[in-house]
Amino acid sequence: MLRLKRATVASAGPADAMEQRLGIEIDGERRAAIADVGLVGAAQVGDELVVNVEALDLRLGSGGFDVVHVNLTRGLGGHGTPDAHVMKLNYTSLQHAVVPLEQGDPGTAPPPPQLPLTRPVAVLALHGQLAALAWAFGRAREGGRLGYIQTMGGALPGGHSCVVRDLREQGLLAGHVTAGAAFGGADGDSLTTVAALHQGLTELGWDAVVAGPGPGILGSGSTLGHGGMQALDSAHAALALGCRALLVARMSSTDTRPRHQGLSHHTRAVLDLLLAPVNVALPDGQQGLRDRHSWVVHEADLEGYAASGLPTRSMGREDPLFFAAALAAGTALAQMAGSR
């Protein structure tokens, strides 16, 4: 069963169209909470809530807050989305209808997609790679339109990433679409990753795409049971559309877990299972594997990135190699976008 408790709002941060940060009280204890405004509405001090407390009780690093399930004071008057009939989070208590970006005429057979698309798609292992990749892409391809497709594997709500908002405000992301189980993208929802890629590269006019999970990651410590495996599906979707796929290597110089030191086992597993070769970018001084994939090396401007004000810590720690790999991938993606 869900771990739900009643709570009272003690403090309420500003609410935008996506999310709101709250301070709540449960049985006299002050706790942090978050409300997905698009789902449950904004809250005010004194409101009575029902919150899901499991993530905070489990002390999950990226989920260290309670999540508002329903606002009992003012959250029971929702009217859904007009003209929407396709569900996300379907068959859960938070199912809601969306108007997907991909729309067909129900009275006619849909035409086949025009392929190949040929443009490049970078595939993330972790959301923490997004800022460095987008910054390097913007430096290497001024005026280039980079879109972000948020997939499953981490946080599902589209409004949960402060990084996405910052990158959009700085002009480093031209769009944000949520795909599959993820929902609430700033520029809309797609039902599948392959549909989101097609929409972004045709209808939305993106020059390149970066696809990957939202903040946080699922993990079990096993070879295949982790959110990083979403990269396998995203890369295959890109290849099926005729796009040139670039795998963003997860690397670390400070992670204490041996399986993530150097080239992470998450990346190695995806490379082993891919049905076709892809490109993999590495920063200066690193060597790729001797395998069927194409390994390219690019300079990583860590000092320039640090001066940008974007995040420079991964999972709470300094990790130069982690960010260097993402910066190298951003430069590689920009070069691929310019060589169509």
Description:
With 340 residues, this protein is an alpha/beta fold. The protein has 2 domains: 4-71, EutN/Ccml (OB fold (Dihydrolipoamide Acetyltransferase, E2P)), CATH 2.40.50.220; 120-337, Rossmann fold (3-Layer(aba) Sandwich). Helix content is 24%, strand content 26%. The chain contains 9 helices and 19 strands. It has helices at residues 37-40, 54-57, 130-140, 162-169, 193-202, 230-240, 265-273, 302-306, 320-337, and strands at residues 4-12, 19-26, 29-36, 48-52, 66-71, 86-88, 96-98, 120-123, 146-151, 175-179, 189-190, 208-213, 244-248, 251-252, 262-263, 279-283, 294-298, 313-314, 317-318. The strands form 5 sheets. It has an 8-stranded parallel sheet with strand order 11-10-9-12-8-13-16-17, sandwiched between helices. A 5-stranded mixed barrel has the order 1-2-3-5-4. The chain has a two-stranded antiparallel ribbon with strand order 6-7. A hairpin with a 7-residue loop joins β6 (86-88) and β7. The relative contact order is 0.14.
